[in-house]
Amino acid sequence: MNQINQLKQLIKIFDQFHLLKRKNISKGICLLLFPIMMFQNCYLNPFVYDLLNPMLEEEKKAGLLDGGLLLALNGLSSSFYLSGIIRNGSGVAQFNKEYSVTASESIADSIGLTGNTESSGRFFLPIGQGNTTIRVTDAGEALVTFTLNVSGPGMVSVTSIDPPEYEIGSLFPYDPTNKPVFFDIISSTPENNGTAYYSTTTITLTFSDTLPNWEFIELESIINNNIIVSPSSITFGSPAVSGNQISILAMVSVFDILYTMQIGPGISSVKGTPVTPTTIRFFTQENLP
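Above: the chain sequence. Below: its structure as tokens.
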């Protein structure tokens, strides 16, 4: 696929994203028209990655998708390098945790390989065909063990997580000679799978790097075009930026249901790196229990 066709497809995807926002359509349709925000535990075609992320000041940008798409990548060898995020059950990125490869069906030399997750909770490691098992610890105490499976060229899935409340997501292949820069959401209020109380609450998103000091009108536009809540019975007002956080006043009109909030790639760090699109789910309750 040449670059012109890639650009046309990319524009079409973003047009669909804005169409979803304007029409406030249901979650089911979002899954049909904008699946790149919803698929989990797989990764994105690097040709699209290159188009989304030009070289800026010699930094390889990484505007990634939440888990990405399960795509066959032509020319990708059976072994490659993979990055992903480790989050706990509340959606908090697990940074500065040690991980080690405990088993591999294809790369024997990787067994015993260790590393520490970055500030966004990201790990980086070689992976090959079949199953690779990774153990994560904090000061020697076990946190989570998970298994990644490569079932074919360009197809990766998470086949087991113990304990299951942890999340292994935003998987992405990379070139170890040109390690990409990532910009991720590392926590939120309300937490993923948490509860927001009262009819007026504040949604806070915490990022892995500093945000630009946008003017109010620009910030409002960025939020309206890149943060979608479904169902649409939550309205936003009074957004603000402070360092690496965005806070948004949220008015809730329907309670005791599950809301899905999707964060799109139009939010960038002060360095210009687009955020990895992320999905956060939370409940609402009108009063404290």
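The longest strand covers residues 141-152.
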